[in-house]
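Re: that chain you flagged

S.,

Sorry for the slow reply, it's been a week of failed gels. I finally had a moment to sit down with the sequence you sent. For the record, here it is as I used it:
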Amino acid sequence: MRIRLDPWPVDTFDGQLTLQPFAGLVYSAETERWVALPTRGIPERVRRILVVDGKPRMEARLLLDDEAGTLSVAGFGAYVVGAVDLCPHGSRRAELQGVRARRVLAYSGDHRLEPARLSPRNPHSGRLEYQPHPFSGAQVEGARAKVQRLMLDDEQALSADLASPLPLDETDPDALPETLVLQDGPVRVGEAGRAVVGYVKTLHTDYLGADRIGLLSELKPGERTPILRFTVGDRGEGHAGGGREQRFTWYVRLCDPPFYQHPLAGVMRLEMHAPEDVDFVPRGVQDIADLSGALLCRLASKAHKDPRAPQNLIPTAALEQAMTRAMGSSELVTRRIRAHLAGQYGTAVVA
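Prediction finished late last night. Pasting the structure tokens below so you have them in one place:
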């Protein structure tokens, strides 16, 4: 018996030890030879890399009751979406873009709520304004889900706005974009036609099967698998619907894992949109896959700096810290919410 360590911290939401088989079909898109492919470096044509991420936070759960005595649930929440703008060739300093907090009053029921403006006693503390957003259902976690949905929508819009268009021709020599967006998590439905790459840090779904997955443990840093193709939501034969959108996917190794970690440590899955009903990989997607190993190895974090290394990229960690600062202290925000409610419905308290 061999014992291997899951490299992610135990307080992380989920580890990387279990893989659920993908129920649908996965096709070879680039080559039928299932072998490791080397990186080809980062061409000079690629001038900007933007790493996009978002961070949600619930700040208070609320119970609403109207004149008729009907109860419904709500919540104060916040989220931040932003980007790190960097040069892959190191010719300029990285910069943060668009990192600011949006605050949400998510509510259920038939209420018509106005924005909640929390004004502090000290004007230098700033005013917190929560914009109302309804959600359907009456679940306590509905408010959290609404904040998450708003964050993902803004994240998608930011990625699409920043990324270069991506031609979907098979042989276009100018298909490689000047601006490439790395988006934390899978790409979203409706992002096709832009140079957006989703990077999945934690592997939960097995898209490879027993005959292919062994290659992942053999990859050297910077090497990748051939590109595969699947359909989002495909549940296999016998299920109606047939999935939603098609994706290209491939795997890259960022570093060699220590001998005591499981063999998939240091492997990241990448994902891009695939055009419908074609049997080729567009030249732009091919070129991005070819440079992905060199790029991600350059951005990979180190274990002595980040417990989620190497998959939690250095720009991602910096962006997470900036987003946390933008939302402010959760303890102070909670006090402001209590003071606001007390001032509206009871005896005012000092914020």
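What I noticed first: The first strand starts at residue 20 and ends at 21.

Talk soon,
D.
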